[in-house]
Specification:
The protein is 39% helix and 24% strand. A 4-stranded antiparallel sheet has the order 1-2-3-4, with helices on one face. The chain has a domain at 32-103. α2 runs antiparallel to α3 (55-61). It is built from 3 helices and 4 strands. By secondary structure, it is an alpha+beta fold.
């Protein structure tokens, strides 16, 4: 092995061995059901009111597996409400063509 290759390997090993020494991982702060309801509400709202696709198409486009979230569409308010496990839910509403849908 050449001297330059040995130095490169030694430098790489030194960099990889450096660390904070903290091996405890931070717990994931968000609940998966909250993420599913938020994602579904915003994407379904965008599909319906920004992309102007059919409700049937948007239901297929935003389907999650397993299907843990339910949703309802309010055409008058141009909004979508989702719920999961009776405890988590989210609402997204159409703001404008430029801004699309936002979570409330």
């Amino acid at each position: 092995m050449s001297l330059s290759r040995a130095l490169v390997l030694l430098a790489a090993a030194a960099v990889l061995s450096c660390g904070t020494g903290d091996t405890v991982q931070r717990p994931y702060d968000n609940n998966d059901l909250q993420l599913v309801t938020s994602y579904t509400a915003k994407d379904f709202c965008s599909c319906m009111f920004v992309m102007q696709m059919s409700e049937e198409y948007c239901r297929r486009w935003t389907a999650a597996s397993p299907a843990v979230a339910t949703l309802s569409v309010d055409y008058k308010e141009r909004s979508v409400q989702t719920a999961a496990a009776l405890l988590w839910g989210e609402k997204a509403r159409f703001v404008s063509e430029r801004d699309g849908c936002v979570l409330e």
